[in-house]
Amino acid sequence: MTAKTLLGLFKSKAKADSATQDLMHEGFSARDIEVRDHREFTKEPGPEESGLHAFLREMGLIGGDGEHAYKEGDYLVKVDADDTQVDRAADILNRHGALDVDQRAAAYKKEGKEAPEKLESIEEELKIGTRPVSRGGVRIYTRPTERNVQESVSLHEEDIHVERHPTDRPAREKDTGAFKEQSFEVRAKGEEPVVGKEARVKEEVEISKEEKERKEVVHETLRGTKVEVEKLGPEAEASFRNVETEFQDDYNKAYSGTGADYQDVLPAYRYGYRVGHDPYYRDGDWGNVEPKVRKDWEDHNYPEWDFYKPAVHRGWESGIRH
């Protein structure tokens, strides 16, 4: 498999550590993860430049003159992953608020430093697999039971009855032994129940499973980046630069507590300034224009409108004035 390197730039050590812990929890090895703070790149490396240092120089985050694109408090998380891990690692870094390294490098280049001459258009692809899950089942077991039964049975019994009959007759020859002791025994017979038990199978329970297929619709949101090309002539660029201080002041008021860098919001000021010069968006006040501007913004799949709306509005106001 091909090893790939992912970079996540974080504004605090806490976020970088949180992302690192999450990566390790998801099975990434500690030896495949590096965390560096900005101070490690404020000085020139030794005679043998580290692999990470060289990689950042190639990315344009470190200039040939030793200057760097890091800011105070920045932390960099570097992850080595194979093809099967790349998407999962990127998702973890993004989930913990990783900044766009390419945007930082681009901003660095605008300040006169080295930076790569390309932007990448990235789109997520939906990959759907399956995994076994429990859907319930049955448990079949046996347990001993008892029940009382009663049945009628006919029993034969003998009763002995002794009857005396008075008589007066001469004794006969067979009676000559009447003057000796004699005894007779007559025994009565009867029956009593004899109980026996035989185990018999009364029911058989068979267990089987029926396999079947079902269709399920999976809903997911795929992210992506589009590369937009905006031609800036010398006059348009000079016009924007003349008023950029207004946007920097507005950023300090509107976005200072949001955690977003000025470079993150700058494209929204540029967009508002550009549409402010477009006759289609100059007719009426902002309340009339905003729905059209927002539609164009969302048609281009730009980031969340509500967050960048103040910057677009400020750029639009400046654009219609100049």
UniProtKB/TrEMBL annotation:
InterPro entries in alphabetical order: DUF2382 (IPR019060), Stress_Response_Assoc (IPR052967)
Name of the protein: DUF2382 domain-containing protein
Organism: Thiohalomonas denitrificans
Domain DUF2382: 121-229
Top-level taxon in the UniProt lineage: Bacteria
Pfam families: DUF2382
